[in-house]
Design goal:
Helix content: 25-40%
Number of helices: 13
CATH superfamily of the largest domain: Metal-dependent hydrolases
CATH topology of the largest domain: TIM Barrel
């Protein structure tokens, strides 16, 4: 007997199988993948032999900061180069002048833009040591609740002035407690942090403080490691050591890791061996990745590496977008390499290179977020899917394909780049 599905996606090109097949969805899950014509459905979507992919996994965002630089004729707060921008003061002023409702509305807007562009899972860091304290966490939790039908959102409260600064540890703990009281699954709340040397001048003390919070609440860790050169290498070494000593293998993510782009081959090999030894995960972002970031080497070493879109229209990255596909196009350009005689020159524009980048934003990202068991275009997986108007990952990246349909748990929540009205939480 043919399967009778709630929804059937017909003529779906699945790149992993290199075939056009039908996908039957029942009760929000993929019940069957079969040759065309073998599945009936109450609702039908014709993919027209175009790519159907699992939804994008955006491993690193800042929804509480979204659109902080917007609202004027020109972006605000970005009149000088990055080093001249007093970030904490700029965000303090922004939060003082914005109501809690406005911060929440901006977060919802950023989330909906990401979903309309194909994201079905997001991890967002939340700064909780600004002048408004944990109100940013309250706004982010409210945004999470309002968008629960369209995305799975993990939140990572962090002290961006440094966790050992006066009152910062208490603010992080308060935010964690707010988060855990509002969710059913503690995996949705992590603890974050930023550059222990730059912000606190205390690498071991800061890392220990991160782990103290994490172990006290039984949650995982995702921290910014942005220091360059040997200082960044030292921080990563200490993070590995603390991960091992605390028994936190597989529960720690290091975001950005810019220093990996500057490591000698021998130093890079030792760092990646240390990462794999404690299953330390990593995340890179298209708009801040270094052109020399050894993405292929990281992946080939076995390190779990994901991708994020980072900041959206704020003082850090005023040009930032929530569109993962646009981010993959930027990645493929930034990672070209500098030596035209090298066999790896322009590797990121090859078919295999785009496959690798796509994997960062899908399956590898799902592994970083810990959702891989229920993820993918496979029978039994949750039906979090995107239908594109191009026939492959490669053309989707090159042509910036339309996201014809975005499905969350089997429901079409976005169509042709817009959230369907019945699923929009925007005021």
């Amino acid at each position: 007997m043919p399967l009778h599905a709630d929804t059937v996606i017909r003529n779906a090109y699945l790149q992993d199988r290199d075939a056009v097949l039908d996908i039957g969805i029942v009760d929000g899950r993929i019940a069957e993948i079969a040759d065309p014509g073998r599945i009936d459905g109450d609702e039908e979507i014709d993919a027209a032999a175009n790519l159907v992919s699992p939804g994008f996994v955006d491993c690193h965002k800042h929804v509480d900061r979204a659109f902080a630089a917007a609202g004027e004729r020109r972006p605000s707060g970005v009149d000088g180069p990055f080093a001249d921008r007093p970030m904490n003061e700029l965000f303090d002023e922004h939060y003082e002048n914005a109501s809690l409702a406005e911060i929440e509305a901006n977060a919802v807007r950023a989330i909906e833009q990401a979903v309309a562009a194909g994201a079905t899972h997001i991890r967002s860091h939340v700064g909780v040591d600004h002048v408004v304290g944990t109100e940013t966490m309250v706004a982010s939790l409210d945004a999470k609740q309002r968008t629960a039908e369209i995305v799975d959102l993990q939140l990572v409260p962090a002290a961006f002035g440094g966790i050992t600064a006066d009152g910062a540890d208490a603010a992080v703990r308060e935010a964690v407690e707010l988060g855990l009281s509002a969710v059913d699954d503690e995996a949705e709340i992590l603890v974050g942090g930023v550059d222990p040397a730059t912000r606190n001048d205390d690498v071991p003390g800061t890392i220990a403080a991160w782990f103290d919070v994490a172990t006290d609440y039984g949650i995982d860790i995702d921290v910014h490691v942005q220091d360059n050169g040997t200082l960044g290498h030292h921080t990563l070494d200490r993070l590995v050591e603390e991960t091992r000593s605390r028994g936190y293998e597989g529960r720690v993510t290091a975001s950005h890791c810019f220093s990996l782009a500057e490591a000698s081959p021998e130093r890079l090999e030792s760092l990646l061996e240390a990462f794999t030894d404690v299953d330390l995960k990593a995340v890179t972002c298209y708009n801040s990745i270094r052109a020399s970031m050894p993405v292929r080497e990281i992946v080939e070493s076995g390190v779990r590496l994901g991708h994020g879109t980072d900041n959206t229209r704020d003082f850090v990255i005023p040009s930032g977008t929530a569109d993962t596909l646009e981010g993959l196009g930027v990645l493929s350009q930034k990672l070209l390499g500098a030596d035209r005689t090298s066999q790896s020159y322009r590797w990121s524009e090859t078919n295999a290179g785009i496959d690798l980048l796509w994997d960062l934003a899908t399956h590898r990202g799902a592994s970083v977020l810990g959702v891989e068991d229920q993820y993918g275009v496979k029978e039994g997986a949750v039906a979090d899917l995107v239908v594109f108007d191009e026939p492959s990952r490669q053309w989707a990246v090159i042509e910036r394909a339309e996201r014809s349909y975005v499905l969350k748990r089997g429901e079409v929540v976005a169509e042709d780049g817009e959230i369907r009205p019945e699923y929009s939480a925007a005021a």
